[in-house]
Design brief:
By secondary structure, the chain is α+β, with helices and mostly antiparallel strands. The protein is built from five helices and five strands, in the order βββββααααα. The radius of gyration is 16 Å and the shape is globular.
Length: 189
């Protein structure tokens, strides 16, 4: 951040906190012993440009401030993540937020998202390989009561991002392709 003359963290007009992700390399995809078949083979991927990513999932309150509605199924606390949003709805949110802020907002690519989620780790989770530690970092089936929870209640990953292992699904800019990991480029896929 110092070399780029950019802040490590910034907050926009609707209260979204964004964290600067550095350029770098990581091992993208799942090893043979874990994950899904369409997340293989693993390959070394290079992200050549730093980018900002939301510290938390977009909250229902933030979504409402930009879009004027809240499509979420799980309501009751405006700090819960907005969910039940289509990919087109997520792209429309980014477009409207860009107009409001005068800056470009977009969904991350799958490679950018996985890079940020892993935060320099080479383990199953950004927190390590122990599944018993997952509950400290994520809301998931075993501890969530099958509902979402306000963003940022669990521990962040090493780069300061919360809820990257649970609470709500995130959209990425890429279109789905079951063979993407086998044929995607190694630089900025």
């Amino acid at each position: 951040a110092d070399q780029l003359g950019e802040p490590v963290q910034l907050t926009n007009s609707i209260g979204m906190k964004l964290v600067l992700m550095p350029a770098g390399e990581f091992l993208m995809g799942s090893p043979e012993r874990e994950g899904l078949d369409d997340e293989r083979p693993q390959q070394c991927v290079r992200i050549t440009k730093p980018f900002y990513l939301g510290m938390h999932e977009v909250s229902q309150q933030q979504y409402q401030r930009v879009m004027g509605d809240d499509p979420s199924h799980f309501k009751g606390d405006p700090q819960r993540p907005v969910e039940s949003v289509s990919w087109d709805g997520a792209v429309a949110f980014c477009r409207k937020l860009s107009e409001k802020e005068g800056k470009a907002y977009r969904l991350p690519t799958e490679a950018e998202w996985e890079y940020a989620c892993r935060a320099g780790s080479r383990t199953n989770g950004a927190f390590g390989d122990s599944e018993r530690d997952l509950g400290e970092y994520a809301w998931f089936e075993d501890n969530s009561g099958r509902t979402t929870h306000p963003v940022g209640q669990k521990k962040p990953n090493a780069w300061g991002l919360f809820d990257v292992h649970g609470n709500a699904w995130e959209w990425c800019a890429d279109w789905y392709d079951s063979r993407y990991y086998a044929k995607s480029p190694a630089t900025d896929p």
